[in-house]
Amino acid sequence: MKRMLVLTCSLLMAGTLPWAQAQEGQQNCVEVQVNGYKAPDYNCLSQQLSNPDGTAAQQKNQEAMQVPVHKRPPNQVGLATPAATSVRMGNTFGTSVKPQRPTP
User: Fold this and answer.
1) How far is CA 61 from its chain centroid?
2) For residue 68, how many other CB atoms are within 10 A of its CB?
């Protein structure tokens, strides 16, 4: 019985350890309630949402924007795609040079 109690206690302690470690890195924010309205601490929330590696992310975004023109999709360069032309021409796509227009 004593061995089972020790085993149960050790399992419970092991189960709470990852949760305790995850909570250490987070900063606690205080919410104030005045007359039934909640007012969160926006400075604290901003710090939680901020990206400490923002410079690396910004550099990756700049590299992604520097794709050569010949490797970009046609719609980003301004070229007509078959799907866009089909929508513009309507049911006359491939049969006429005049786009489909509704009757006046």
Assistant:
1) 14
2) 6
Write down the pLDDT at residue 7. Answer: 56
Rounded CA gap, 75 and 68, in Å?
A: 14
Phi first, then psi: what are they for 38, rounded to 5°? -90, 135
pLDDT value at residue 13: 62
Q: Residue 50: phi, psi to the nearest 5?
A: -70, 155
Owner of token pair 């470690």: 21
3-state helix, strand, coil in the chain (%, to 5): 60, 10, 35
pLDDT of residue 21: 47
Decide: 81 and 74 in contact? Cβ < 8 Å.
yes
Q: What is the DSSP string of 25-52?
A: TSPP--EEEETTEEEE-HHHHHHHH--T
pLDDT in tens, 11-48: 566 555 554 444 445 567 778 888 888 888 888 888 87
